[in-house]
Fold:
Amino acid sequence: MGTLSSVELEQTARQLAGDRFDDYAVRGFRRAYDEYVGRRRRSVSAVTVIADGRAYPSLYAGILDPGTKFTTGELRLEGPSASPDSWEFLAPFSKIVFQADGAAELHGPDHGPPRRAIARFLLREHYLVRSRTDDAPGGPGGPRFPSLVGTLPEGVAICRSAPLLPFEAAILLYLADGRARFEIDLVHSVLLCDPRAGRLAAARRVSRPSRLSWGLDQKIGRGHLSLLAARCLELLVESNGLSSIDLSHVFGGVREIVDSALQALVQQRYASFDPRTGLYRARLEAFLPESQVPAPVAEAPVRPELRTGVQELIAAADARATCPLCGKPRPMGPHTSLLCDECAEKVGIG
Structure:
């Protein structure tokens, strides 16, 4: 399985979109393709895509085959990398088998018993065909999707109907002990290294429950966040806090651009910033079901009569601290009279 050229993907888009893939759409596609290829990351292994029991040279070939329903599927590694660094932050596997009910089996490299999981796909980087008419003033603007996260058949249905060309997709496996994420470069048909590999200490990763990861993926799947902001948010959730320097090193970008993405997360209340440490932290409660978000601690109701009683005691204490006749402060200690010694002598109170 080799790299698909821009020309080959143009042909795929033309078969899917027909007349909508006009010269305007071609320019947009070429720009998106060049940007994606220019950001290419290290890979772990080549992959083979199998749908409904049939192997395809690429996912695009299966998308173009209308008879393929992707009811079942399999992602198989071909010659995985021997370097352990390539697997950093990833769960090693030999293949992933997708079942018709949306479940999956993660087969380890030792060919032991597979691990069961719920499988979803996130259409990460992609090109949505937009014709000149779509982007014209008052035009339809192209299709809208409720979510870019779904089962394999749902993802393929979006690619066929939109039409949409996926450059990269994330396989999300919700296991009993957390979520595993694998990113597949569909243009080059390879499993990608985690962006943190070799750039961030593995000890800084924090495992989160699958339920929280599910909520995170649903937020990202809405498509409201920029690509960089979404990637930063994923890493913030899987840590106890990262700085903009940490994240710019991970993604290899300019710190100011990363800062802008992080500030957008703060404004949307997905993250918070600690000026004392310079760390950004994910607001985990934003990704939990409302039933699991801790309720704010209510302040005890104020009793007016109690407040009045306290004020009277304070006033009485203030009164005892001064002589009611001359107003001079009285020394500390027990007193047998409200008057100071001088006034008590004048009025004849002993």
Q: What stands out?
A: The mean pLDDT is 86. The chain has eleven helices and twelve strands. Residues 206-297 form a domain with the Arc Repressor Mutant, subunit A fold (CATH 1.10.10.10).
